[in-house]
Amino acid sequence: MAIIIKTREEIALLREAGRINALALEAMRRAVHPGVTTAELDSIAEDVLRSHGAVPAFLGYPNPSPRRSARPYPATITASVNDELVHGIPSRRRVLVEGDIISLDCGCIYQGFVGDAAFTIGVGHISEQAERLLRVTEEALYKAIEASRVGNRLGDVSAAIQAHAERHGYNVVREYTGHGVGREMHEDPQIPNWGKRGHGIHLRAGMTYALEPMIMIGQPEVYVKRDTWTVTTKDHSLCAHFEHTIAVSDGEPEILTLS
Ligand code: MG
Ligand code: MG
User: CATH no. for residue 81?
Assistant: First the structure.
């Protein structure tokens, strides 16, 4: 597959999809507190998307797992708690407790275009260690956005994430990446959270992609739980995930997933 350069009209639709998606994420942000279940957060997000004429993009997404029990994704959001990195399935049994951290990832389709963004947030009071992980992971996202300029290469973006994580003694995941976003949720190119400055494709105006640092305090190895979706750190260390979809332009990079 080739990288699809978007027109101004297409970017306007991506911006609208991203805006609706951001409203769903904000509604969940307000609802995160001890005692809430991840299933409740899921239905909050689904209501916001549908009330704005968008549909969930994750629901029914094909499962890449080769396991026989693999099934399409069953929900609107992914809700990944503590040592869960990404793709946690919302559940009525998963009750958030004070001190948890939770990554909430939401995707929608609006008029044929995709919005995709995520953040990680503490539940009530969280440890200083967790606060620092969240701060550094979000900073890594903004470093990657900042590097998303014509004249740079994809490796500059990836390296910005990796360098910021490792500077703080953290690791980045190897198996999961950012990705192009357009009519499809996952387009080319893949954008690893690790890479070398000065390598990779040259960035061009009209590229639109999701940047998503996934950073852990411990070792970078992860595994997929028996539910065939939830990605968890092997050593069960805390991890965090922030994501925005952005457009490369001739000027400043534009975040498309703001409310
Ligand atoms: Mg996402
Ligand atoms: Mg994504």
Answer: 3.90.230.10
Cα(118) to ligand 1 centroid in Å equals 6
Question: Ligand 1 centre from 141 Cα, in Å?
Answer: 13
The model scores a pTM over 0.90: yes
pLDDT in tens, 111-141: 999 999 999 999 999 999 999 999 999 999 9
- Mean pLDDT value across residues 79-98: 98
- In order of 4, 151, 184, 207, 250, the CA distances from 7 in angstroms are 10, 20, 15, 9, 13
**Is 2 a member of any domain?**
no
Nearest-ligand number for the alpha carbon of 103:
1
Q: Is residue 243, in this structure, part of any structural domain at all? A: yes
> Residue 101 forms beta bridges with which residues?
122
pLDDT at 208 over 80: yes
State the Cα–Cα distance between residues 67 and 90, nearest whole angstrom: 20
The overall average pLDDT reported for the chain is 97
How many Å lie between the centroid of ligand 1 and the Cα of residue 241?
9
Residues around ligand 2, an ion, CB closer than 5 A = 116, 210
Type of residue numbered 2: A
Q: What is the Å distance from ligand 2's center to 116 Cα?
A: 6
CA pair distance 53, 24, nearest whole angstrom: 12
pLDDT at 1 over 70: no
